Amino acid sequence: MSEILAGDKRAIARAITAVEDSNVEASRLLKELFPHTGKALIVGITGAPGAGKSTLVDRLSALYRSRGERTAIVAVDPSSPFTGGAILGDRIRMQAMATDPGIFIRSMAARGHLGGLARATADAVAILDAAGYNNVIIETVGVGQDEVDIVKTADVTVVVLVPGMGDDIQAIKAGIMEIGDVFAINKADREGVLRTEKELQTLLQISERSDGWVPLIVRTVATEEKGIDELASGIDRYREFVSSNPARFEARRSSVARARIIELLRDKLLLAARAKGVTDEYLDGAARMVSDKTKDPYSVVDEVISRLGL
Amino acid sequence: MSEILAGDKRAIARAITAVEDSNVEASRLLKELFPHTGKALIVGITGAPGAGKSTLVDRLSALYRSRGERTAIVAVDPSSPFTGGAILGDRIRMQAMATDPGIFIRSMAARGHLGGLARATADAVAILDAAGYNNVIIETVGVGQDEVDIVKTADVTVVVLVPGMGDDIQAIKAGIMEIGDVFAINKADREGVLRTEKELQTLLQISERSDGWVPLIVRTVATEEKGIDELASGIDRYREFVSSNPARFEARRSSVARARIIELLRDKLLLAARAKGVTDEYLDGAARMVSDKTKDPYSVVDEVISRLGL
Fold first, then answer.
1. In A, residues 203-262, which contact B (CB 8 Å cutoff)?
2. How near does any CA of chain B get to the CA of A310, in Å?
3. Which residues of chain B does A23 touch, with a Cβ-Cβ cutoff of 8 Å?
4. Where are the alpha helices (DSSP H) in chain A?
5. What is the CATH classification number for the domain harbouring B42?
6. Same domain for B283 and B134
């Protein structure tokens, strides 16, 4: 543990692998690290594929570095349940930034059908927080429920859009609009930026937030390092807004903690069931019966639940 | 139950609402309906927002209708956990198609933090299958893990792309490439269709499938009803490929059943825990302790698990 608190990159990487594997060791470590967490600014960045999130995250990290802040990036790819590894772009980024001791980059992907990616990501963030990174950026690929769950554990959430995504704004609006504290319209040198901005403003006006915050809209061109200062100050402004009111601050912290507990519980319940006889062999056998139609899946699960005494 | 088997739309709609609420009634009904399932062709359609999936699904349904087949559409929006309702487009579609007794359209959205959308969707599909729809199309918004889980319960999966999505193909390739049995390049009248097709072919060549199937690529322009025949016959061809080999057919069925059991289990475990004292009040109290740092989330969950005797 002391190595992690001292910021040893290799120890941190090992610990993150342990939480991905969700072993007993990891659980003990996380309990020990918990009192050391809560200092980092945790920024969630989400948006449709192709919006340029990775470049934006790189630029934002560089800005934080120029302020002398240590920054960790956790790139989460829930749509990659099979490869279990880093996406191509991250490998390139890792090479470029790996030499900077104040930068840590890690890719996380779903390991299999039983993995709790949101839980593992939150655990990894806790490790990086305890390790003394001033900022931890969670970058997600995709816009599904899993991504929403993941960014829900961040202090600030940035949603990235690109001009001409009219259809997309329609498609993703419901869930995403409500989790975005700051909106970055990236590739803002493209045609249609004004229209996208106006559509976004209209949508934000309709969906009033319970905390009274009016989400900020920032134009960026990440490839040309434009608008990154504005993005960083947008993030800071939301943080100040939350911190300025103790009740509001407490409400946000509690809701993050609640989301965290539920993710952990969902994961640990399944692990506990696995340990109590719901093995791969059992699942394979049950699946065969269901596909043979000799048994229905609801009865299979009812039996498991009652055998577990629940 | 007889009303559902007779295809009564109102009874079907009520049953789907019951499975969304996950009540005891629903569980009993699903067990009774199970022997009547397994006849429908279940088609999963996924892809990035803005790819034109809804229009493509509408055109495909119209084609199935012209063959005299009854068709149900289940539109799933995991990125919409807050509104809990239909997305705008679906409301419009419902009006247009609601008059056709051979078409059934239903939107499903995550109801809250504890909802199992993949499980509820699979249950809804089972109801529609038992109700005698020849085809059930599951349409997802977004490209996250949840979407992958959802389409994994389909007989055939169609991934929809659009020209010029180079970045997106990179971003979504890992998970999506492996679940796509048929790829539709929609809006194929746009510039860049050839390049997208070539990139896709290259990616498909790299990722060889264990079942030996080489995914088909179809060009469509859904708004002009182009390529819909080709899409439908691509779907049929994959079905024939699977059915032509009993071992292969059995393997696919089993893997669908296994995914189904795990989704159900994940959901029911949490519900069982909720019934055994993990109430909203309990969660709120625990969240406060975690955010106060008087307790760590791992210990909270360990206590719950041990109190449940797991």
1. 250, 253-262
2. 6
3. none
4. 2-5, 9-21, 24-33, 53-66, 88-97, 117-130, 145-151, 166-179, 193-206, 228-243, 246-275, 280-292, 297-307
5. 3.40.50.300
6. no
Q: What's the domain range around A65? A: 38-125+135-260
Same domain, B85 and B157: yes
Question: What pLDDT score does A72 carry?
Answer: 95
Residue of A nearest to B286 (CA): A258
Asked if A169 and A87 sit in the same domain, the reply is yes
Q: What is the DSSP letter of A74?
A: E
Q: pLDDT class for A176, splitting at 50, 70, 90?
A: low
Regions of chain B where pLDDT drops below 70 = 49, 77-98, 110-115, 141-146, 165-177
CB A79 within 8 A of CB A142: yes
Structure confidence at residue B111 (pLDDT): 55
pLDDT greater than 90 at residue A30: yes
Q: Is A249 exposed, middle or buried (0-12, 13-18, 19+ CB in 10 A)?
A: middle
CA dihedral A138→A139→A143→A148, nearest 10 degrees, is 0
Residues A214 and A282 in one domain: no
Interface test with B, best of A298, A305, A310 (most B CBs within 10 A): A298
**Tokens representing B239?**
């079905």
Q: Which amino acid is at B156?
A: V
Domain count, chain A: 2
Per-residue pLDDT reduced to its tens digit, A85-135: 334 455 456 556 667 889 998 888 765 444 577 888 999 999 999 999 999
Say which DSSP state B142 is in.
Answer: B
B71's tokens = 């068709």
Residues A213 and A287 placed together within one structural domain of the fold:
no
Residue A142 maps to a domain: yes
